[in-house]
Amino acid sequence: MTDSRLVAEGDQVRRRRQCAACGERFTTYETAELVMPRVIKSDGSREPFDEAKLRAGMLRALEKRPVSAESIEAAVERIRQTLRARGDREIQACDIGKEVMQALKRLDQVAYIRFASVYRRFQDIDEFRAEIDRLAQEPSFQPDSPGEGR
Fold it and tell me: Residues of the signal sequence (predicted)?
């Protein structure tokens, strides 16, 4: 190797190399392969982390809500970073669900309630009401006007 430096974005390393056999020079770009933890499902089975599945669940809850695609992608990326930063080889599916609920709570309270109703398996209107009351009592709860801050 004759030269090594970070590429402008900082997520790649550019290396100038020289072939030991013929002396020809060439450039390589190296990126770290960041492995996501495996997901332990509620039935005990394990499967690879699936970002598309994470995004689809969030999009289902956010359907017809005034939240930008950029905000959704940023939330998906934050969840991925949080899971990766834990450093665990495996993670419980319920822990991913909790991360999604926190992200949705920050993005859109209606989407949060939609997701929570499925995730927590609400059985009747009283469970919806109790969750809405809990959400309304949180100090960080600030109902936005539709589309505001998104």
Answer: none
**pTM, whole model, 2 decimals?**
0.68
Residues 60 and 114 in one domain: yes
Q: Are residues 103 and 124 in the same domain?
A: yes
**Single-letter amino acid, residue 102:** Q
What tens digit of pLDDT does each residue of 83-117 get? 988 889 999 999 999 999 999 999 999 999 999 99
| 116 falls within a domain | yes
The answer on 85 and 109 residing in a single domain is yes
The closest alpha carbon to 79, from 47, 115, 36, belongs to 36
Which residues make Cβ contacts (< 8 Å) with residue 21, sequence separation at least 6? none
